[in-house]
Amino acid sequence: MRCLHFCKLPGRVMGIRLLRFTSVVIIVLLLVAGALTALLPNIKDDKMPNLRREPKAQSQPTLDSFTLIMQTYNRTDLLLKLLNHYQAIPHLHKVIVVWNNIGEKVPEEMWNSLGPHPVPVVFKVQAVNRMRNRLQNFPELETKAVLMMDDDTLVSAHDLAFAFSVWQQFPEHIVGFVPRKHISTPSGVYSYGSFELQNPGFGNGDQYSMVLIGAAFFHSGYLEDFQRQPEAVYALIDETQNCDDIAMNFLVARHTGKPSGVFVKPVDIRNLEKDTNSGYSGMWHRAEHLLQRSYCVNKLVNIYDGMPLKYSNIMISQFGFPNYANHKNKM
Amino acid sequence: MRCLHFCKLPGRVMGIRLLRFTSVVIIVLLLVAGALTALLPNIKDDKMPNLRREPKAQSQPTLDSFTLIMQTYNRTDLLLKLLNHYQAIPHLHKVIVVWNNIGEKVPEEMWNSLGPHPVPVVFKVQAVNRMRNRLQNFPELETKAVLMMDDDTLVSAHDLAFAFSVWQQFPEHIVGFVPRKHISTPSGVYSYGSFELQNPGFGNGDQYSMVLIGAAFFHSGYLEDFQRQPEAVYALIDETQNCDDIAMNFLVARHTGKPSGVFVKPVDIRNLEKDTNSGYSGMWHRAEHLLQRSYCVNKLVNIYDGMPLKYSNIMISQFGFPNYANHKNKM
């Protein structure tokens, strides 16, 4: 070991050596300490004891969970029955109840007295009973996905879990359980309907060009888009107290340039209308309901200066459910 | 009209005026001719008389049509029966028959004598009887889509037309009629099978992770990719005379990072094996067939250093076909 001028003086030699030795020891100790610190396991947040009990779904609200938006009018008994079911659906983040019972108190006290509940439920009191109240861009909405359900429709948890997974693969579409179509007639006037209408004539089988939002998943961004539509659209929906779903399909089709919806064939979907004590039967029982919807299709074509709806014949089911070989064939 | 110096001389005036007048007339005539030419309808190629009779599908071979590739060994009677059916499928561009009957003449003479045929059929004579002969990047292939069929499988035209339309919406996937899956065991060893195997455990219902290429549409680009795989893959397929389809699913899954296949539930798919006069029964009757395929899965995981296959539970059917309300529900 080469030693320079400061080593030459014997009187100082011992002191310098000690100093050097001590420095080396300190440096080595620091290095060892640093190495140990780097090797220690990281204490992540989720391993720390959760002192406040929070529902698990709250931690990742964006793409892994959805918000249920359910508008209700004059069927509080059905609403509460359905909430008992829907509040427990996997991947549900929150429920927003759009309260169209003007002047009537929300059942918040009763709801809280029957807690705890799996997810938060927000009751949004409305000023006017409007069909399009459910299409507001609610500030409480935190998830990318919305599940919109009519307050008389029961869809099984299995169906919903599967449809949500399908929506995650088709996030720009309305993924739901109720397909409908329009057809054009030689006069250029459109008609609205379902399987009873003739096929649009694209090959064999039937086609659909809309998926109704009363039992469907769609991207919350479309609620934002809905706020920016021509006034005539709102006027039409308010005039008919109908057709908000047709308007949404127009919006989505215009946005994507593709068929607005993806139809998932439900295994178990039920209409509980007959079970209500309120005596109130839905809008679709009105004599003019379907005619009104044809009227809406034509008005919307007018407003948007074109027919944006596109046909699809894709029907999606869940592989191996409910029976594990629902795909067996003669092969 | 102002007239400058050249107007001053009376002797030249008449001549100049005439010249100017003539120029104006000529210019006007040219403008009119130009306007007329612009207004004439465009004569497009497809409106010109087609002097040579060409099948309609030849005009746009890329995305609107597909090529059928059918490998055949020792079942010429089935091949010819199936060709009579498949040659007439809508959107078919061409048929490539991969002739694995080594040393045997292709039935080209007989085929031609029974013409005309809807599409060209090319018989590709092979040097060696190899399972992977059908996975060559044939120069005759002009379309983006390939339909690969086993020479004992009959799928209805309706199913094929629908599945082709589905492939057009999922061009990077293998879109077909026969789903299979792998499962992993606690030991890390994989097993291959179908509905009889336990579910992979992702929610309820079953899952599939492969779609067999013996009855499926896929992008012709994958045949190109297949030529660039590790040697060990070819050796495995040659050793087993099996598993080329499993290898293709590995290839596609690695390429997309998604489930390799999309399963379309067939309405009418039949195995004609028992109808053959050749007495030859397919490879899948060998006792070790399924075990071999499990073996292949594990070997491929080894070769590719990982398991790229992903699960899907999407099952696609044709809306409103065969019966126009196959989507009706209790609602």
Automatic annotation (TrEMBL), chains A, B:
The chain crosses the membrane at residues 21-40. Glycosyltransferase required for the biosynthesis of heparan-sulfate and responsible for the alternating addition of beta-1-4-linked glucuronic acid (GlcA) and alpha-1-4-linked N-acetylglucosamine (GlcNAc) units to nascent heparan sulfate chains. It comes from the Eukaryota. Belongs to the glycosyltransferase 47 family. This is Exostosin-like 2. InterPro entries: Glycosyltrans_GT2/GT47, GT64_dom, Nucleotide-diphossugar_trans. One of its GO terms (biological process) is N-acetylglucosamine metabolic process. Keywords: Disulfide bond, Glycoprotein, Glycosyltransferase, Manganese, Membrane, Metal-binding, Signal-anchor, Transferase, Transmembrane, Transmembrane helix. Its cofactor is Mn(2+). Residues 66-321 form the Glycosyl transferase domain. One of its GO terms (molecular function) is metal ion binding. It is found in: Endoplasmic reticulum membrane. Its EC number is 2.4.1.223.
